[in-house]
Design a protein that fits this description.
Layout (H helix, E strand, L loop, with lengths): L11 H13 L4 H7 L3 H4 L1 E4 L2 E4 L7 H13 L2 H10 L24 E2 L2 E2 L1 H20 L12 E5 L3 H12 L8 E5 L4 H8 L7 E6 L6 H15 L11 E4 L3 H7 L6 E2 L17 H7 L1 H20 L6 H15 L4 E6 L7 H13 L17 E3 L11 H6 L6 E6 L7 H20 L3 H10 L22 E6 L4 H22 L10 H15 L8 H12 L1
Parallel strand pairs: 5-6, 5-7, 7-8, 8-9, 10-11, 10-12, 12-13
Antiparallel strand pairs: 1-2, 2-13, 3-4
Helix pairs in contact: 1-4, 4-13, 7-11, 7-14, 11-12, 12-18, 13-18, 14-18
């Protein structure tokens, strides 16, 4: 079943939202609370260990109901069934989009009429067996020593997901040390290698085609480094791969039993749940990796079954559309109040912007409305001392997600109380701000001569009215992290459906790759090739300086 092909700007609910936006650009969140005594309760969702508060937004029930109508008019329910069951909704590449099938069989997904559950189970069993052998020390290096270090070699989704999750779940790590090489910059791989022991290092080469330029360059460098200490035959015990190209992995020296398949119905940026997550499973153990999948599966079920007003991903997505398409916001910030999630925003940058950064709709026409928004952020409280000035007193509207946890992992309650007091205070400050009268009163209480601070007072005023979503989660575990990541994945899907774009291809990354390959080919022939005057000048300086 193909996805619907609706121009959202022509839908009745879209036009109604345009009318509402004129009203809400002048609205006050504080006033909305005064008008509705039950607002905090009615605009919050409690699900498992999650409590998500959507009440601090420039919206009310009229706006939300109209957004729900927009989803309905856009054919979201039909699209959801196609997404979860295995229809080829990645139409430009003729592929299904079934990362959900990696964590649950609840929707009986099929590709070309064939169930995928057995294929998924086989790969998971292979991951479990391999992880248990490496973690236990049964898998030996070429000198008989056990593995101590894992190096994941990949780029994009083959790097960002595993990096994010292994850092997020560092509390649950075992004795293995994980390292990641992604950038084709030779300094990156060199810095990683210089502190490793070839006798105890296992390399994971993650490339579906085993032809990705950056990954193969780094893998080849690692192999050469390894062979400066060991023999060709020893490669088999120190290299594994996530790939479908058994011919290339075999030529590289990787044993077939250490090659993990990745189906073409799993997109790179949604692949951490697959064998691409092998470095995750090695780092935290297979049982914790399975728990990560279980948490995501629970969110999949919630997304599929919950009513609109209680559906976390749906409300996340629709409020994002409200700000992006009707309120003039161009970016959204994601601020986790835990250092463990330091790479969460970077991970979501790829997931969101590579998915929904499209200007051509599913009809092949140029859109007349905004699509994907810019995602950015850093952990609190560090971010409060960096860019929060812009969110509080800047001229841009920046909806912000705050993600916090009730329980700290290492105890240290005093630290956690200080962290979470900032977490709650920031959302309150962003909503309420501080009036001129409040600033003046503060000076008066200090006994300050108001005439001496007359010029300062305007600079201390906060307009407030800055929208936020608050995620309050009981504890950071593999399970809750899986649920959180899955919620953002479904947000991406929903927004793509409503914007009438294809979220699961990424043709926009191809042109630069093609030109880079041409430049390399020209250099191999002793030429700089034919380019525009600016590029020609830069190439000349690079090669001749």
């Amino acid at each position: 079943m193909p996805l619907p092909h609706n121009n959202p700007s022509q839908l009745k609910s879209w036009k109604q939202l345009q009318e509402f936006s004129n009203e809400f650009k002048e609205a006050s969140i504080s006033t909305l609370f005064e008008a509705d005594a039950q607002r905090a309760q009615s605009m919050s969702i409690e699900w498992e260990d999650f409590f998500v508060d959507f009440s601090k937004h420039l919206s009310d029930q009229r706006v939300l109901n109209t957004l729900y109508n927009l989803a309905e008019e856009s054919g979201l329910e039909e699209a959801k069934k196609a997404y979860l069951s295995g229809d080829k909704i990645n139409a430009t590449e003729g592929r299904a989009v079934l990362h959900t099938a990696l964590r649950t069989n609840a929707f009986s997904p099929k590709v070309d009429g064939q169930p995928v559950s057995e294929e998924v189970s086989q790969v998971k069993a292979q991951i479990k067996s391999f992880c248990n052998r490496v973690i236990s020390g049964e898998h030996k290096g070429y000198t008989g020593k056990s593995i101590t270090d894992i190096v994941n070699i990949g780029i994009g989704g083959s790097d960002l997901g595993p990096v994010m999750v292994t850092e997020a779940l560092a509390y649950y790590r075992n004795h293995l040390k994980t390292h990641f090489v992604s950038n084709v910059d030779g300094d990156h791989v060199t810095e990683v290698l210089k502190n490793l022991d070839p006798e105890t290092t296992l390399f994971l080469v993650v490339s579906k085609s085993f032809t990705t330029q950056e990954t193969l360059a780094n893998a080849t460098t690692c192999r050469e480094w390894f062979l400066s200490h060991a023999s060709e035959a020893d490669v088999a015990s120190h290299f594994a791969a996530v790939s479908t190209n058994l011919g290339m992995t075999g030529q590289f020296g990787i044993a077939n039993e250490n090659v993990f398949a990745m189906a073409d119905w799993v997109g790179g940026r949604f692949s951490l749940w697959s064998a691409v997550g092998l470095s995750i499973a090695l780092s935290i153990g297979y049982e914790n990796f399975e728990s990560l999948l279980d948490g995501a599966a629970a969110m999949d079920q919630h997304f599929a079954e919950a009513s609109p007003e209680k559906n976390i991903p749906l409300n996340m997505a629709l409020l994002g559309i409200w700000y992006n398409n009707f309120m003039g916001a161009e970016t959204e910030a994601i601020i986790p109040y835990t250092q463990y999630l330091s790479r969460f925003s970077a991970y979501l940058q790829q997931a969101v912007m590579e998915s929904n950064g499209k200007y051509v709709d599913r009809n092949g026409a140029k859109v007349s409305y905004q699509t994907g928004s810019i995602v950015w952020g850093e952990p609190g409280t560090n971010s409060q001392h960096a860019f929060f000035q812009l969110i509080h007193q800047g001229t841009k509207l920046i909806p912000t997600d705050f993600i916090g946890f009730v329980e700290p992992l290492h105890g240290r309650q005093d630290h956690h109380d200080k962290l979470m007091s900032n977490f709650f205070a920031q959302t309150e400050a962003l909503m309420n701000g501080k009036t001129k009268e409040e600033v003046t009163r503060e000076f008066e209480m200090k006994g300050t001569d108001l005439s001496s601070v007359e010029d300062i007072i305007p600079h201390k005023v906060f307009e407030g009215n800055k929208p936020t979503t608050t995620f309050l989660i009981k504890k950071l575990t593999p399970y809750t992290l899986g649920s959180l990541v899955a919620a953002y994945e479904h947000k991406i899907f929903i927004q793509g459906v409503i914007w009438n774009i294809y979220s699961y291809d990424q043709w926009g990354v191809e042109l630069g790759k093609q030109l880079a390959n041409q430049i390399l080919a020209d250099w191999s022939e002793g030429s700089n090739g034919s380019h525009d005057p600016s590029t020609a000048q830069l190439l000349s300086r690079f090669k001749n300086d």
